[in-house]
Amino acid sequence: MTQVGLVVVSHSRALAEAAVELALIMVHGDKPPLEIAAGTDDGGFGTDAVAVMEAIMSANQGDGVAVFTDLGSALTSTDMALEMLADMGEEIEVRVLPAPFVEGLTAAVVRAALGSDLDTIESEAVNSLAPKLEHLGVAEPPVAGTLPGAASLGASDSEAPHETPPDAQQLVQVVNRDGLHARPAAAVASLAQTFPGEVMLDKSGRRANAKSPISIATLAVACGDNVQVLGYGEQAEAAVTAITKLIASGFGEERGKIPLPDTTSNSTPDTTPAAVPAAEPDSKPGTKTPTPPRPVWHAPWETPTALKQ
Prior knowledge:
Structural class: alpha/beta
Subunit structure: Homodimer. The dihydroxyacetone kinase complex is composed of a homodimer of DhaM, a homodimer of DhaK and the subunit DhaL.
Domain HPr: 167-254
Shape: elongated
Number of helices: 11
Order of helices and strands: EHEHEHEHHHHEHEEHEHH
Largest sheet: 4 strands, parallel
Strand order of the largest sheet: 2-1-3-4
Radius of gyration: 32 Å
CATH superfamily of the domain at 3-136: Phosphotransferase system, mannose-type IIA component
Strand content: 5-15%
CATH architecture of the domain at 3-136: 3-Layer(aba) Sandwich
CATH class of the domain at 3-136: Alpha Beta
Helix content: 25-40%
EC number: 2.7.1.121
Region (Disordered): 253-309
Distance between the termini: 102 Å
Low-confidence stretches: 141-160, 271-276, 297-309
Catalytic activity: dihydroxyacetone + phosphoenolpyruvate = dihydroxyacetone phosphate + pyruvate
Number of strands: 8
């Protein structure tokens, strides 16, 4: 299976290697073709158009190459590299993505490892800031699909309800301490990708594409949250069962303390005053009050035995 190649262009070799190392932590399985063109030959800061060109050629497997850059001149060097490729007659589909360096690269690495096409990788990378923006309360996150050839994986992918009920569904509680953060989200996406049908995760009515780690991250699923796993189409039951089992396992991570359910939030407090037992008239401090005799019913004209004494 061929994969989309990835190229990281940075002024700093150390920065590029750290970003790649972080992204590869999220990969479950074979790593995608990935090359770094960063720094100068003497270990300094800078970019080299020839190095970028060679990195693109090395990363290319025939399905295109996505390029991630850090600062301004990295873009200039990449443009020069594309011109050199064209002059050499190299026909490689290269897209320099307007995506955040770390988040975009991480999303692209996960998708490329799953065998996604260049359109999907571009959309996932462009939308990779969505979880952070949502957490910070930013109203207008970037929308994928506005670039040539990009396929939207934004709000329509994570929030649009299905017109038909799922073919299979199961409820599962998240038990690992940190919830569905980046690595568990990538694990779920990797597993979901192995099934032909569509798989969604639903948290309190909000849905996410289970094949997209970025989409899963927008749900902000924490330890103790309940998630519905919904399967549609072919092998729906198998997909739902496998993903439910994975989430319930805790991903091999430390388990968290599951919050106890709030049983008082919707209840009306009992304002009825508690009954106070009457004190015995003959009781003295320090003496034990005897247990009163069982009440006996008497006719109205009779005097209870207790009152005759």
